[in-house]
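Researcher: Let's do a round of design. I'm pasting the structure tokens now; please hold your answer until I've finished.
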């Protein structure tokens, strides 16, 4: 038996090792359970291949799959199962030959006993330090009786426990009783559960949960994962409290003095700014203005584009004299096109963390929250996950912009997501009608980082770039979309093209 200070054994999966705090305590018995297709075989192969890479003997005991089937799964990931031993029992006939014809004992009694005996002989011969037993469902079928099944599992635990081996029992959770599963959980030192979720649209989502691991402070909760060439990609759940670093909360200017004055010099580092308004008011353009200014200062920035195509975004930026191509060529700007139907929230958070940790990004733009919402299979958890992500970015000292589209054009407008409370600053954009034209207004609803203007100003975006005009003090009811003009002269911004036309 192992002592209490067992060393940690790497699972061969960096994400899972991070969740477990470094790996599994050695020489213990673990349960890996999940429905068919959830990734159990792939994770088991990773575990054994890691042992082989470290020069350890590893053994795969399979009651459910043949050697050829395992070889096909391994080959799909670029692996070779010749790196470890495989012991297969394809059928009871292979175990017993013609010895099933007798009348004293039931055939299943002899099948189970002989199967266990052959497994023990193989373990004694190979003397592995890593073992995968796949799967317990076949043992249930051979046992026929739940009590006999539990006794055999306990006997296997005692047998493996005397041989200094780290063992993973695989269970596909078919045909088992709830009480038997609880008993199995109590026998094992740790339990890892894989799940496969089929959504109404898009790719299937998979997730992992460590239900228990004795003596280890693991990261609890669900962690998103995907099966890709090379194995399981597991993204540990983000916990912002464990990623704090000091930063200087200085303002970040946009290069447009009038826009910066709205927020008292610009958003502070370590804060999140929500830019909200209906489609076409210039939300993304405002964020691009800050991105352009940051790149000109030599800062690294990242844009996550959920809605708009990157080509369209680049063309629009160029029309407003924002040269994003140069920033991309200089390695200062990364624009990622996100497909909400294919991306899980856990993977998205992990991508953001990589930009912060590997590229040292200083500014992040998420465009838009509607796209992020579409990536969530359970809408009720969006606020919690977004709050955790924003807290992480804040503690890392980043400036974050969230684009939040609203429905409607004039008058009362609504949003599918009430997330304004998690933002440190809120920029509100509105359409309004005046002098027979549709115009735009900008105002600051709040700024936790300091002082801000409380007036409503006109916003103009054209070939001259982004401009913020004077306060619309000669109007009332601007935010209703149909204001009443009470001034004597027009204070509104006009473009040079309008001036040439006499407009």
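Researcher: That's everything. Go ahead.
Model: Designed sequence:
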């Amino acid at each position: 038996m192992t002592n209490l200070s067992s060393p940690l054994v790497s699972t061969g999966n960096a994400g899972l090792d991070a969740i477990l705090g470094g790996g599994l305590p050695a020489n213990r018995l673990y349960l890996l359970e999940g429905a068919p297709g959830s990734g159990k075989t792939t994770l088991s192969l990773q575990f054994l291949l890691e042992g082989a890479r470290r020069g350890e003997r590893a053994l795969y005991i399979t009651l459910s799959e043949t050697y050829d089937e395992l070889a096909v799964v391994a080959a799909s990931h670029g692996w070779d199962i010749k790196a470890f031993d495989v012991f297969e029992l394809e059928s009871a006939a292979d175990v017993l030959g013609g010895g099933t014809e007798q009348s004293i004992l039931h055939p299943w009694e002899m099948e189970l006993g002989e199967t266990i005996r052959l497994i023990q002989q193989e373990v004694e011969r190979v003397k592995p330090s890593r073992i995968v037993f796949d799967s317990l469902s076949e043992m249930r079928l051979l046992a026929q009786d739940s009590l006999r099944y539990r006794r055999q599992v306990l006997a296997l635990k005692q047998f493996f426990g005397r041989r200094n081996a780290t063992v993973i029992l695989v269970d596909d959770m078919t045909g088992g009783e709830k009480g038997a599963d609880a008993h199995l959980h109590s026998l094992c030192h740790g339990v890892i559960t894989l799940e496969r979720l089929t959504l109404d649209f898009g790719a299937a989502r998979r997730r992992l949960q460590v239900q228990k691991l004795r003596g280890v402070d693991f990261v609890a909760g669900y962690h998103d994962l995907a099966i890709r060439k090379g194995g399981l990609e597991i993204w540990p759940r983000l916990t912002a409290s464990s990623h704090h670093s000091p930063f200087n909360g200085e303002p970040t200017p946009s290069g447009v003095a009038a826009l910066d004055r709205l927020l008292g010099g610009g958003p502070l580092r370590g804060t999140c700014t929500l830019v909200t308004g209906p489609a076409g008011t210039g939300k993304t353009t405002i964020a691009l203005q800050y991105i352009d200014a940051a790149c000109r200062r030599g800062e690294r920035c990242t844009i996550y584009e959920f809605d708009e195509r990157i080509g369209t975004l680049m063309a629009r930026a160029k029309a407003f004299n924002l040269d994003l191509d140069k920033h991309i060529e200089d390695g200062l700007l990364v624009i990622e096109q996100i497909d909400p139907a294919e991306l899980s929230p856990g993977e998205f958070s992990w991508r953001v963390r990589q930009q912060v940790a590997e590229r040292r990004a200083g500014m992040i733009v998420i465009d838009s929250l509607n796209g992020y919402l579409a990536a969530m299979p359970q809408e009720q958890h969006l606020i919690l996950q977004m709050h955790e992500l924003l807290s992480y970015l804040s503690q890392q000292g980043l400036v974050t912009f969230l684009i939040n589209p609203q429905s409607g054009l004039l008058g009362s407008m609504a949003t599918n997501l009430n997330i304004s409370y998690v933002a440190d600053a809120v920029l509100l954009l509105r359409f309004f009608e005046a002098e027979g034209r549709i115009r735009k207004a900008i105002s600051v609803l709040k700024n936790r980082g300091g002082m801000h203007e409380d007036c409503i100003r006109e916003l103009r975006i054209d070939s001259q770039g982004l401009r913020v005009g004077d306060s619309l003090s000669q109007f009332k009811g601007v935010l209703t979309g149909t204001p009443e003009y009470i001034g004597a002269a027009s204070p509104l911004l006009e473009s040079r093209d309008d001036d040439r036309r006499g407009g």
